[in-house]
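The following record pairs a protein chain with its ligand, coenzyme A.
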Amino acid sequence: MTNSRIAGLGYYVPENIVTNDDLAKNMDTSDEWIQERTGIKERRYATKHKETTTTMAKKAAEIAIERAGITNEDVDFIIFATLSPDYYFPGCGVLLQRELGITKTEIGALDIRNQCSGFIYGLSVADQFIKSGMYKNILLVGSEMHSMGLDYKTSGRNVTVIFGDGAGAVLLQPTQEEKKGILTTHLHSNGIFAEELALISPGTHGGYHDKEDLVDFGFPDPSEHGGIFATQTMLDDGLMFPNMNGKLVFKNAVVKFAQVINEALTKTGLSKEDISMLVPHQANLRISQFIQKTFGLRDDQVFNNIQKYGNTTAASIPIALTEAWEQGKVNEGDLVCLAAFGSGFTWGSALIRW
Ligand code: COA
């Protein structure tokens, strides 16, 4: 039986550090409020006009590829997870392929839009491709440049203080070693909550969710004329910024994180005592601490770096996993548990025998 294993991993975060006090210069917030509710002390912002989601991804990818002991040309498939792409379309997968200079081979590039659980979704897809024998060197990247689209006024404070920029990448290869590599992955979603953590404009909805909930954008009845992609009103009303029902996200996250981790343990016949290291999506330090308590894990069994980088969505797990590995906290034979929850709502888990 072929499993896939992480043969190389890397991350990149921009140099520019933005502290909570920096944010408080533009909006009514404080270092104390942010740290108490989220654990975040600072985050990184990319340099506009110089860096993009794809250029950050390239830096992380090159490290992962090198650590796997292969060259860019050996990559035979790219999977790119992001909610903050360089362009509305095409997705970042092809842009990364171009940045890495591997256009000659004309390998496939797939874009994943699953927000905070994008990396786990990508990992699961990559795992299936490798298990089936279709590919041998899959590059999976999560990268985000949130800083380009946040509301820095007080109106956006509940969302803006949470997010940061960065990229993480892994290079997946097959392994024949028994019970090694990715043991299992689990993916879930519930679209009922789609608008509870979302950036809804611009989009083909044209400013409304359904016919019973029409918003007057001054256009002819949109139910007859179809959607309107972008309007001045969307800009004026701040509808082009992400919005979040923080309390609802929190409540669902703590339940679903636990469920999906338990699902992975049950599937593999393992127990919480077997977990060497939990690397949760860095949504909020309070969520991670809740999960740690739920599973009775010690501090050295849970890796958190949200304090330094904020929530980097699809990039958070590969950044955290790489840092944990670089610090010698993930070693041969360890059982590593990855779990994520976020917009959609979507959530997932993976168990990896390192
Ligand atoms: N600074 C200061 N005050 C803020 C603030 C900020 N950055 N953001 C919100 N507030 C205010 C609100 O306006 C509100 O004020 P009011 O009582 O005068 O109306 C008050 O703080 C409480 O807001 P609320 O949204 O109810 O706070 P909360 O206790 O739920 O904490 C979160 C907010 C976002 C920290 C919390 O809900 C959370 O962590 N949710 C999960 C979010 C998450 O993990 N998202 C990523 C998912 S992948």
